[in-house]
Write a structure and sequence with these properties.
Strand content: under 5%
Number of strands: 0
Helix content: 40-55%
Shape: flat
Oligomer: single chain
């Protein structure tokens, strides 16, 4: 994951970050941290918080991608199935009316 070697497990982690970026409409992941801080915090178990307007079931998909123990981390088939289940339910998994304008905007020089 943080060793610079490509792997499916690393791709799954990155997909969780991509989901977070999509849900935040292009927000910067780990917005207030430098790359070194991100590496340290992630190694210590830090995960990004649930965006305010994101349903818990969709956020759970993200956190499935960020499980530290590789053997317990989900795979893309599990991600796809979980997202399908979330979308099949008759409820909002994103509430864009609760999205605060500018909430995920940060200066370009932060990262």
């Amino acid at each position: 994951m943080l060793n610079g070697q490509p792997s499916l497990e690393g791709d799954v982690w990155s997909y969780g970050v991509l989901l977070w970026e999509i849900v935040t409409l292009g927000g910067k992941p780990y917005p207030t941290m430098t790359m070194e801080e991100v590496k340290k915090q992630v190694t210590n178990g830090y995960t990004m918080p649930c965006p305010k307007h994101c349903g818990q079931e969709l956020y759970a998909v993200m956190t499935m991608c960020w499980v530290m123990e590789l053997k317990k981390r989900c795979d893309f088939h599990q991600i796809m199935r979980k997202i399908e289940l979330v979308m099949e339910k008759d409820h909002e998994y994103l509430s864009l009316q609760d999205l605060e304008e500018g909430l995920y905007e940060y200066p370009d020089n932060v990262i």
